[in-house]
Design a protein that fits this description.
mainly alpha, 9 helices, 66% helix
Length: 310
């Protein structure tokens, strides 16, 4: 049921040097970020991991520029739309990853939820995205992604800030549920158009590569937030043992992540552009729908530009 697609310029070669460099570079950076809070950011192990990882990533960029069949063609980032979408992805997913890492700890240590209760309390977030993400994607296809990518992160940021309501009493209806619901609405507005824009702004033959880059950017954003956010918010190792200290740090953290998510919306409003409108011309000719060509399902589509959506 899924039409085949391929890269007509693919050579069949595997970019082993590029694959090795990017893998080892990400390992070094990841290890340094994970171990930094435990060993101290000035320790030789952490600094060595971060420096080695950064050096390997620089070498990766140099190698890819000269490779005949690069695993990540540098030209993919020549699209402002693609680059901007990944910047927004990094900011929004960093905010989301950092907040959702600390939220279950807040619910258990401060509000005295059980581990199961802390997990179940976030189910509305999953339910909202399950029910409405497809509708959000359909809306973005009609009006363009810019409005939703600008508004959605702001709504999600508001939901994150609302998590400041959570305190020692831990009342679910008044303290937890409102923030979780608003956060879910913000993510529904944001995620589908963000993902589709990341894919559509790269050449069709690089759609799989664009998806991988966008996913890696999202994971990297969450990793960096988990590593850095507790220290920035004033959460130390002792805070996890003292509910009042952790509560204060958690409130700082969700405020920081809320502002960061809203900043992602501002970036989207400035840099994301809606695609040009197309005029549909009805035709009785039935056409195929290959992914490596202009979609022409059912009615023939005349790719006639009639103006760019503001």
């Amino acid at each position: 049921h899924v039409p085949e697609t391929h890269d007509p310029e693919a050579t069949g070669r595997v970019d082993l040097p590029g694959a090795a460099l990017v893998t080892l570079g990400l390992v070094g950076l990841t290890m340094g970020l994970i171990e930094g809070p435990a060993h101290g950011w000035s320790s030789a192990f952490v600094l060595g991991s971060l420096v080695a990882g950064a050096a390997l990533m620089v070498a990766f960029v140099v190698v890819e520029r000269g490779a005949r069949a690069p695993i990540l063609p540098p030209g993919i980032f020549s699209s402002v739309q693609f680059t901007a979408t990944n910047v927004v992805t990094f900011v929004v997913y960093a905010a989301l990853g950092g907040a959702l890492f600390l939220l279950p700890v807040e619910l258990q240590q401060v509000s005295h939820y059980s581990p199961m209760g802390a997990g179940v309390s976030l189910l509305p977030l999953t339910g909202i995205m399950l029910l409405f993400s497809a509708r959000s994607g359909a809306l973005a296809a009609r009006i363009g992604p810019r409005l939703q990518m600008a508004v959605g992160p702001v709504v999600a940021g508001l939901g994150l800030v609302m998590l400041r309501l959570i305190g020692s009493s831990g009342d679910y209806v008044t303290q937890v549920f409102p923030g979780v619901v608003v956060l879910g609405i913000g993510l529904v507005i944001t995620v589908a158009p963000l993902t589709s824009t990341a894919l559509s702004s790269a050449p069709t033959e690089h759609a799989g590569m664009a998806s991988a880059v966008n996913n890696d950017v999202a994971r990297a954003g969450g990793l960096i937030a988990v590593a850095l956010l507790p220290a920035v918010a004033g959460i130390t190792g002792l805070s996890y043992l003292h509910p009042q200290l952790f509560e204060h740090g958690f409130h700082n953290a969700v405020t920081i992540t809320g502002v960061a998510a809203a900043a992602g919306g501002v970036l989207a409003a400035v840099f994301i552009r809606n695609p040009a409108r197309v005029r549909r011309v009805r035709s009785p000719v039935r056409m195929s729908c290959p992914l490596d060509a202009t979609p022409q399902c059912g009615d023939q589509v005349a790719r006639e530009t009639v103006g760019e959506v503001a």
